Fold this sequence. Notes:
globular; mainly alpha; 79% helix
Amino acid sequence: xxxxxxxxxxxxxxxxxxxxxxxxxxxxxxxxxxxxxxxxxxxxxxxxxxxxxxxxxxxxxxxxxxxxxxxxxxxxxxxxxxxxxxxxxxxxxxxxxxxxxxxxxxxxxxxxxxxxxxxxxxxxxxxxxxxxxxxxxxxxxxxxxxxxxxxxxxxxxxxxxxxxxxxxxxxxxxxxxxxxxxxxxxxxxxxxxxx
Length: 195
């Protein structure tokens, strides 16, 4: 929550100073990554062992359920890897160079390897034939929400980011975030609620 508040302030000032100007990945890391690391370090230093105990307790419960195959360091590494892959891909599209294009393959393979640790089940999962009608409806609703969000992302890409029509872009972005929130709730229902 603290990182979100700091990011909102930084992005608001940044958007006011340079509206609609595409920023390279290095500038994004400098403006958003460094403050996030500082806030995270402050939280760990100030809260000490309590946060580590709570986190290890939650991860221990998840591991016992077979839902997670890596510890907190693996979660952090996967998050950083996915963000680095997305940033490098965006940077390769915006500012193509030999370095960014050649770094996509090993970074993509590394991210895929990390993601496979989280996706591979430890035990026997619930098969689609064993799903009840409510879970089956949630599964199809999740797919529909993700397809709708892809369409809205395409629409957002075509809208201007400055000027009078930029309010439409903000409304579409808000709709996308709400849809992703609902999709996340459906995912949690599908994965964590027993049939």
